[in-house]
């Protein structure tokens, strides 16, 4: 019954609208307004452009000032401070260009609305004017390009030697990280060795794998360069760390990297943001399937000492999965047991 | 001189051909269905484009409901979406991605490429250059029917059990190559690829025709420097399409091989669904290079026709010559050329060599210069004009506004250092929906309002046009402006919901606001639809030249028959922008009026030409 009522009300409404439209048309025919080149509507439209300009600028100002608190969350990496600055400078320039061009566009539309008494000015070209407004954007662009280029080159330069290595691997739908262990080297892998447990496909004929560990969360030391080695096992993913202003795709079959220096510990960020529950988060930004929106992982940044302590306490992956000792070549078994932190077999 | 001789003789050949057939009426099927007449084909593209625009818009409304009201009970959509609404009344996340994918594909290719270029290139090129029809009417017909078959296949893919393609409109492999990864990559993706392959064939058949017609079939006196800017735009668009679509075709072909024949062009070292695939040595980055080699020029394939249409409409309704005709043409040529060497700015953070990133950043920001010149020239054309606000003019002015506001954020995204943070966030979504989506859509609308009288011999209702315009113009800004804010806050695109992150927990009210605006804006399009259909049958009869315009199409009868002009094709004596010429009695002088007939308004150099004209006539 309600459905029926809604449908009939809708039909009635449409019928009324149609009637209004017909009456309006007939009235204009009678008034002969179709023979005018520009009637009252022309004035209304011209006025509306002006009104749109004024209300638009007010709305822009209001919405902007009330949303800035959520813009570009506090940058927690060193390069992020620099890119944020460039962002706001560029934003300033384009806002000026935006406002100036729109004021002219809508003001001209209003000011030069049709009038019987006037004839438009025949003004087909003006070389000087055109050269000026080719050069101005060219110069501004050049400035922005070169400042951008320098920053980009710095950010993407090879990581310093002493950078902490973290391997991160995306799969549908989650991330896993692997650290180098006490030898400082992340071991080799082969995707054909991946199984439900050995999700990294660690190749145990490479001795660097013996002490690698796979923690549940990402921990990073504050103030020291960190390099992420990024992999994907199934489809494209993308590592996005919004607070660190860092993003890089994870590509199956090709390792990608980025590096940065965390500026604040998680605790410090909690104080800065005034949010006691604040955590650095990692998100996926390359469409990867049904769970794309939920590939969250927490990143913890600590003071260097705390980080070192945590690092030393971690148990190697091999020690928690001793079954895989069997896949270590015979000659390296003892070394594997030793590096993994397991008891060496004395009777052999 | 030689070329004009050729074009006259060809035109003459057409004349005779035309006369032979004049007396026997074509059958209904040959006249309205498998027509070789460019005007009918143009309308066929327009109707199909409008159909797709409704589908594409509806999809966006559906996923905006999910984004604006996450977790809401969507059981009421069950009659429409069936099994894609889960038992709990929520939208299936894979179907969300499928809708996003299909919205992108439909809007970019089916609406703004076929619907815009297909409609207006077909309809206007012969009418504005002064030709009886396209160079090859048969190829032109094939172009539409390939598009039609492609449309049917894409439409069917919306209804299959595993769902349509769902890997994003960019269909990056491996996601698009592996049905194990997402169900849309099964049959849905196969249909997508087949449909797009046919679509490319259609585009190429059309494009070759547009280019040939513009080069060979211009009427006497219609030199390149007298071409209306619309024709320049369609011509350059066709050239860009001809050079870039084959690359998409090859990308799609290699993807088909990877999907069906076990090759490894894009696949390498993949472990999925509990097994390691045998593919080794391929590169997903290769696909991205191939895709964006089309994908970026595609932006201009969509945008240039809209800019051409706008140039024509703004000049006509400002009653002023377009400011800087040469600069407008040169900037379109420059944009067309540069569009081929900026593609990798879509790939700054895909793992591509950072040095390559620097090169592409430099090239990308150069493209801002000709774009800026165009914007300034539009504004200057309005200056000291005598502006008549037809609905087409309103849409054109708004197009300039979108072109500027969307283009400016391109300066941020083209900067690789800034793109790191903003890549694949809503900032990108806001940017391209304004500069490419809305601007081109407004170009399409402007074109329909402006050339409707020539298409159907009747006028559309102006008042409804005004209401449609203001609702849409304000609506588009209310939808897309806030998306910049959401993007600057870091929200990634193609997310089903943001609830699992603290970092993206703000702006829930803004997302709701955007969704409501989107629904209102979409609903406003039905005003247009009513006006369009009603006016085809019941609109006021159109005068011969309702906008007092200079171009040749307005010299044809109210409804041009097959062959366009009943008698001889008019000769062209002047450029198309002689509006408000000092000394002239009227504020426009059509292109077919000889200079010798207007001694009172001729400029100095035109006096000499007028003399030559008279000598030639004697």
Tell me about this structure.
The complex is a heterodimer of chains A (348) and B (618). Chain A is α+β, with helices and mostly antiparallel strands. Chain A is built from eight helices and nine strands. Chain A has two domains: 104 residues, no CATH class; 177 residues, Immunoglobulin-like, CATH 2.60.40.420. The longest helix of chain A is centred in the first third of the chain and has 34 residues. Chain B is mostly helical. Chain B has a single domain, classed as Cytochrome c oxidase-like, subunit I domain (Cytochrome C Oxidase, Chain A, Up-down Bundle), CATH 1.20.210. Chain B is 63% helix and 1% strand. Chain B has a two-stranded antiparallel ribbon with strand order 1-2.
Summed up:
The complex is a heterodimer of chains A (348) and B (618). With 348 residues, chain A is an alpha+beta fold.
Count of the domains of chain A: 2
Number of domains of chain B: 1
- The CATH class of the largest domain in chain A is identified as Mainly Beta
- Regions of chain B with pLDDT < 50 over 5+ consecutive residues? 1-22
Strand content of chain A: 5-15%
Beta-strand content estimate of chain B: under 5%
Please name the CATH architecture of the largest domain in chain A: Sandwich
List the helices and strands and how they pair.
The complex is a heterodimer of chains A (348) and B (618).
Chain A: H1 2-31, H2 40-67, H3 78-111, H4 127-156, E1 164-171, E2 174-179, E3 218-221, E4 226-232, E5 237-241, E6 246-250, E7 256-260, H5 266-273, E8 280-284, E9 297-302, H6 304-313, H7 317-320, H8 333-340
Parallel strand pairs in A: 1-4, 3-9
Antiparallel strand pairs in A: 1-2, 4-7, 5-6, 5-8, 8-9
Helix pairs in contact in A: 2-3, 3-4
Chain B: H1 2-21, H2 28-33, H3 38-68, H4 78-81, H5 93-129, H6 137-157, H7 187-216, H8 229-260, E1 271-272, E2 275-276, H9 284-318, H10 325-338, H11 354-366, H12 368-382, H13 391-413, H14 416-422, H15 426-456, H16 462-488, H17 508-538, H18 604-617
Antiparallel strand pairs in B: 1-2
């Amino acid at each position: 019954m309600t459905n029926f009522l809604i449908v009939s009300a809708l039909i009635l409404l449409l019928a009324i609208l149609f009637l209004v439209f017909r009456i309006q048309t007939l009235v204009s025919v009678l008034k002969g307004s179709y023979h005018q080149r520009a009637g009252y509507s022309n004035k209304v439209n011209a006025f509306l452009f002006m009104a749109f300009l004024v209300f638009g600028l007010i709305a822009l100002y209001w919405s902007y000032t009330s949303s800035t608190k959520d813009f570009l969350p506090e940058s927690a990496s060193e390069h992020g401070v620099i890119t944020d600055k460039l962002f706001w400078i560029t934003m300033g320039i384009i806002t000026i260009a935006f406002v100036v061009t729109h004021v002219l566009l809508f003001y001209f539309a209003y000011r030069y609305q049709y009038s019987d008494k006037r004839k438009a000015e025949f003004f087909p070209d003006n070389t000087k004017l055109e050269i000026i407004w080719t050069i101005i954007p060219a110069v501004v662009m050049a400035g922005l390009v070169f400042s951008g280029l320098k920053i980009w080159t710095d950010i993407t330069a090879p990581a310093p030697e002493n950078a902490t290595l973290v391997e991160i691997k995306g799969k549908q739908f989650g991330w896993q990280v692997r650290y180098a262990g006490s030898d400082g080297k992340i071991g080799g892998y082969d995707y054909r060795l991946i199984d439900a447990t050995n999700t990294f496909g660690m190749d145990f004929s490479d001795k660097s794998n013996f002490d690698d560990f796979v923690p549940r969360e990402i921990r990073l030391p504050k103030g020291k360069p960190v390099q992420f080695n990024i992999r994907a096992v199934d489809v494209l993913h993308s590592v996005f760390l919004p607070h660190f202003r860092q993003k890089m795709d994870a590509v199956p079959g090709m390792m990608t990297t980025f590096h940065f220096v965390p500026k604040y510990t998680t605790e410090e960020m909690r104080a800065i943001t005034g949010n006691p529950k604040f955590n650095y988060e990692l998100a996926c930004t390359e469409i990867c399937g049904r769970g794309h929106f939920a590939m969250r992982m927490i990143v913890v940044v600590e003071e260097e000492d705390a980080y070192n302590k945590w690092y030393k306490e971690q148990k190697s992956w091999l020690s928690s999965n001793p079954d895989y000792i069997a896949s270590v070549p015979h000659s390296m078994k003892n070394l594997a047991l030793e590096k993994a932190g397991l008891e060496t077999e004395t009777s052999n | 001189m030689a070329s004009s001789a050729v074009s006259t003789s060809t035109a003459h050949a057409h004349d005779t051909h035309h006369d032979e057939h004049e007396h026997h009426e074509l059958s209904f099927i040959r006249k309205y269905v498998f027509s070789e007449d460019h005007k009918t084909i143009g309308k066929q593209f327009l109707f199909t484009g409008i159909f797709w625009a409704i589908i594409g818009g509806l999809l966006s409304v559906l996923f905006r409901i999910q984004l604006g009201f996450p977790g809401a009970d969507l059981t009421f959509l069950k009659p429409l979406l069936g099994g894609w609404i889960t038992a709990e009344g929520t939208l299936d996340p894979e179907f969300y991605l499928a809708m996003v994918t299909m919205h992108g594909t439909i809007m970019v290719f089916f609406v703004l490429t076929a619907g815009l270029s297909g409609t207006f290139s077909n309809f206007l090129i012969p009418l504005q250059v002064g030709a009886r029809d396209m160079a090859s009417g048969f190829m032109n017909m094939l172009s539409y029917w390939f598009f039609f078959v492609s449309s049917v296949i894409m439409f069917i893919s919306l209804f299959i059990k595993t769902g349509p393609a769902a890997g994003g409109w960019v269909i990056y492999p491996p996601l698009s190559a592996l049905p194990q990864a997402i169900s849309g990559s099964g049959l849905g993706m196969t249909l997508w690829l087949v449909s797009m392959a046919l679509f490319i064939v259609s585009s190429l058949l059309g494009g070759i025709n547009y280019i040939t017609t513009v080069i060979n079939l211009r009427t006497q006196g219609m030199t390149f420097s007298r071409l209306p800017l619309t024709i320049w735009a369609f011509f350059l668009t066709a050239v860009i399409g001809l050079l870039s679509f084959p690359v998409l075709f090859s990308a799609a072909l290699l993807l088909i091989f990877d999907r069906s024949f076990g090759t490894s062009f894009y696949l390498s070292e993949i472990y999925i669904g509990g097994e390691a695939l045998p593919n080794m040595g391929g590169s997903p980055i290769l696909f991205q290079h191939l895709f964006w080699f089309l994908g970026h020029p595609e932006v201009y394939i969509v945008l240039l026709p809209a800019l051409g249409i706008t140039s024509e409409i703004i000049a006509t309704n400002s009653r002023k010559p377009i400011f800087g005709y040469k600069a407008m043409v040169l900037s379109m040529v420059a944009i067309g050329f540069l569009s081929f060497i900026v593609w990798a700015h879509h790939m700054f953070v895909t793992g591509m060599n950072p040095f390559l990133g620097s090169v592409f950043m430099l090239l990308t920001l150069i493209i801002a210069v000709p774009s800026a010149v165009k914007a300034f020239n539009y504004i200057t054309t309005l200056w000291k004009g005598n502006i008549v606000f037809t609905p087409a003019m309103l849409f054109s002015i708004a197009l300039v506004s979108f072109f500027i506001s969307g283009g400016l954020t391109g300066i941020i995204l083209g900067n690789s250092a800034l793109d790191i943070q903003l890549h694949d966030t809503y900032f990108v979504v806001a940017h391209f929906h304004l500069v490419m989506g809305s601007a081109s859509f407004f170009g399409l609308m402007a074109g329909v309002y402006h050339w409707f009288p020539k298409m159907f011999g009747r006028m559309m209702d102006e008042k409804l046009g005004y209401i449609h315009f203001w609702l849409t113009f304000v609506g588009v800004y209310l939808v897309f402006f806030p998306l910049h804010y959401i993007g600057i806050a870091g929200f990634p695109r193609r997310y089903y919901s943001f609830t699992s992150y603290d970092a993206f927990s703000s702006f829930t009210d803004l997302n709701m606001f955007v969704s409501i605006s989107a629904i209102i804006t979409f609903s406003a399009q039905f005003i247009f639809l009513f006006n369009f259909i009603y006016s085809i049958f019941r609109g006021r009869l159109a005068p011969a030249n309702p906008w007092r315009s200079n171009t040749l199409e307005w010299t044809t009868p109210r409804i041009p028959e097959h062959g366009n002009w009943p008698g001889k094709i008019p000769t062209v004596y002047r450029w198309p922008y002689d509006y408000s010429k000092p000394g002239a009695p009227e504020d426009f002088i059509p292109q077919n009026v000889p200079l010798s007939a207007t001694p009172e308004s001729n400029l100095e150099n035109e006096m000499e030409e007028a003399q030559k004209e008279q000598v030639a006539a004697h």
